[in-house]
Each structure stands twice: as structure tokens, then as C-alpha cells.
Amino acid sequence: MQKLILALAFCLTQSFTIAQADTGVISAYVPNSKLVGKGRLSYMVWNIFDAKLYAPNGRWNPKTPFALSLNYLRSFSGADITERSIDEIRKNSSTSSKKLARWQRQMGAIFPDVTSRTTITGIRNKQGHTVFLRNGKKIGTIRDREFSDRFFGIWLGRNSSNQSLRRKLIGSSI
Q1: Is the dihedral of CA 166, 168, 172, 174 positive or negative?
Q2: 73-91: buried (b, 16+ CB within 10 Å) or exposed (e) per residue?
Q3: CATH number of the domain bearing residue 59
Q4: Contact 51, 160 (CB under 8 A)
Q5: Exposed e or buried b per residue across 112-129, where buried means at least 16 C-beta atoms within 10 angstroms of its C-beta
Q6: 157 vs 7: which has the higher pLDDT
Q7: To the nearest whole number, what is the mean pLDDT of the chain?
Q8: Binning pLDDT at 50, 70 and 90, where does residue 22 land?
């Protein structure tokens, strides 16, 4: 029983440490970052990830720096995450096949496989580029403002396929 309690305490400490690491790095890109909103994405009976949106002073503006953290609750391959992202971008916008193919290659080179409790954070920096972190460590950057708009639009855009999650993240009742 004592070993079980110690193991549980270790897991909780590790999750807290990862969360602290992410918010520390987020602050380097998003000045005075505060939580705007949070929510969980579920599909049927499966919980997919918990999402948190951070912005300066807790006020999100799609044209200023912000960070969206996804704490995965299930395992997925980086290739599956990339493919799903491209599918959502395609549904939400009229983006050319050429751009989608380029973005797919770029994301494919960045996105790792994830397991339960892996956190992937996307940060829209002051230049409008997207910086990606895995558990608080930088894993890549896509330097394309249009990509940033389309990518974050998956969760935060008016055409998001999950409006309930969007409202929770941006703190809106509309």
C-alpha cells in the first residue's frame, strides 16, 4: 500500500512539474500569460485531451501572442495528429492543396507520438509564427502567419467543429 501511495504521489508531482514547465516557457512567448479558459475534448466515450488557452492578462486576441496547451489523455501517433489537423484545416478554410501539403510535411516533421499525460503546446508568437512545445521543451516552429491562423482556428475559430470546446477556451457564452 505504501508503494502505491508513493507511486501515485510521484505521478502527481510529475504532472505538476510538466504543467509548471509549460507555463514557464509560455511566459517567455506570451507576456503576463494567464489562463483564459479550459475544456476537455471527448469523442463518444473516450476522453481525448484537456485543453487550456493562455493569453496576456487572460484576454485572448487571435492576432496577439497566445498559447494553446493540449494534455493528451490517450496515445496517438504524430502522423495521426498531423493528418487530423490537416483534415480540420481543410474543413474550416479554403486553403490550397499545395499549402496543405507543405503544412502537412512541416507538422509531420515536428509532431511526436504522444501517450497519456503528454502535453503539446502551440504558441502564436509576436511575429505570428507557431512554436510547438512537448512537455515544455521546444520541438519546432512553423514560420507562416496563415498557418498559425488556420491551425489555431481548429479549436478557436468561428468554424471550429467543436463550438462547445471553443466557447470554454475563449471564455465566451456565445
Answers
A1: positive
A2: beebebeebbeebbebbee
A3: 3.50.70.10
A4: no
A5: bebeeebbbbbbbbeebe
A6: 157
A7: 87
A8: low
- pLDDT average, residue stretch 156-171: 94
pLDDT at 94: 87
Summarised one tens digit per residue, pLDDT across range 108-131 is 999 999 999 999 999 999 999 999
Q: Which of these, 41, 74, 36, lies nearest to 164 by C-alpha position?
A: 41
Q: How many domains does the chain have?
A: 1
Distance of alpha carbon 155 from alpha carbon 92, whole angstroms: 10
* Separation between Cα atoms, residue 50 and residue 43, nearest integer Å: 12
CB contact at 8 A, 39 and 5:
no
How far apart are alpha carbons 94 and 165 in whole angstroms? Answer: 23
78: domain range? 2-170
Could you tell me which residues are beta bridge partners of residue 66?
124
